[in-house]
Amino acid sequence: KAVETEIKQSGLGNYTTTNNNLVIKELDLNSLKSVKKLGEELLKEEKHIDLLICNAGIMALPNYETTKDGFEKQFGVNVHGHFYLIQLLLPKMQAQAPTP
């Protein structure tokens, strides 16, 4: 509920949404298990996927850290998490693309 409330508030640039059909999904790019869970949910629940923007990330961690799967954290979150989600969703996106 807190995320839904926050995302509907006016943000930078005073953009707001009146769309009550907003769906919030949990994704932890630090965990490939979480990425897989979201990918499977989207494949099951959505008829089609029109657009995928992979724009989340972290940088300049002060100390060496690893993801839950043992990868260096910045690389694991910024590359492995996004790449895995794309691999899960891409076949559905390609299958719905019009043929030339």
Indicate the structural class: mainly alpha
Helicity range: 40-55%
Write down the Rg. 16 Å
Given as residue ranges, the uncertain stretches (5+ residues, pLDDT < 50) are none
| Alpha carbon gap, first and last residue | 43 Å
Query: How many individual β-strands?
Result: 0
Q: Please state the average pLDDT score.
A: 88
| Number of helices, counting only DSSP H or I runs of 4 residues or more | 3
Report the order of strands and helices: HHH
Most strands sheet? none
What's the shape?
globular
Strand content: under 5%
Textual characterization of the structure:
The protein is mostly helical and 100 residues long. Helix content is 43%, strand content 0%. It is built from 3 helices and no strands. The radius of gyration is 16 Å and the shape is globular. The relative contact order is 0.16. The model has no long low-confidence stretch (mean pLDDT 88).
Summarize the structure in short.
With 100 residues, the chain is mainly α.
Write the layout of secondary structure elements.
Layout: H1 2-7, H2 32-45, H3 73-95
Helix pairs in contact: 2-3
Q: Top keywords for this entry?
A:
about 100 residues, 3 helices, about 45% helix
